[in-house]
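Session log. Operator J.P. requested a structure for one protein chain; no other inputs attached. Running the standard single-chain path with token output.
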Amino acid sequence: MRPHPPEPAPALTVSGAAVVYHLYDIGYAIELDRIDALFAGEASARTRPERVEAQALQIANPPVTVMLGYRTLRVDGTQFAAHLTARLFDFGVCSLQLEIQAAGTLAWDDFVQFARALARSPELSALFSAELDALRTRVAPAIERAGLAPVSEDYIVFRVTALRGPDGLAADPHAVLTNDRLAPLLLGEPRALAPTALRELLHHRFSYYADDLVVLTWENALVLEPTASDRDVEYILEFANAQLLELRVYDAVLDAELPLMYHQVAEARRRRRPLPTRRFQGVLSKLQTRVADVTETVERAENALKVTDDVYLARVYGAALELFRATAWRRGIERKLEIFRSTYAMLNGEAQGARAELLEIAVILIIVVEVVLSFFH
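Structure written below.
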């Protein structure tokens, strides 16, 4: 007997949007109070999660959110009015987010096509680049040691506010949003994935209420939230991306500094100075400054959001950091900082040895002079 073909999945309709995030490191630090003053009277605010359980998330210095208005974006030949927002973090990160509302109610497959077309849109990079330049010029007075890092982060959240079945009633997201349905949206693979791969890539699933759902992946996330004003999950994901960016930026900084450090040490060894004890003074000063800068900034970014209890938002935040491999990036930075510290200790020890040798020579010379003088007397 021939096997029966699998029954087709029930049709779904979706109301939702895509929120595209591009994050940049624009300086060593941002004075958020100064940002408030620069945007006084405009649509800006110091935002934080609003849910009751969000009290378990401690944010010492909440970022400043600035509404920048609407921009026009063409997606697959169709023009959309996209809402642009900037969020500025005190540890030097600027996050630009562009929200594009899907045109009306779409079938699930059409929503997937909309998402794919948006991700491929050639206008996105140019729009973000132009907006970043304009924003950096405006906030320049509030930036300490301004400069655009070569490393950036991007992330897309597909936000669904209504999910309905073929009968027009609200569908159970846990029953209908299977891995096979989520893979084309969140993974974008052109070929069907193996069941084991789907389980591994889409196992970060979270729910708080019966009608909500969050699915996280490395580059995208699905947030099904019927309450339009509830943006806490997106806030947490944006925060995690900002922290990841800082780790990546300073990992790249240390990667670039290591060869320079070796070159500077070699140059210092070849340099001849009247006092050999001061031969490494410039290198030691640079090493100490670099270690202090990186340690302070990374610690400030990591401590910007602290979790005090195992609540829903905390679990989403922890899963995002795990998925982004933040711990691995942190370990990489620590290994490189340890190389800097070891080099500092080695050069400092060498300088101390040269100083001790110089003192011994001085003592010997004094003794010789005293012996000579006593001989003549």
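Operator note: The two ends are 124 Å apart (CA to CA).
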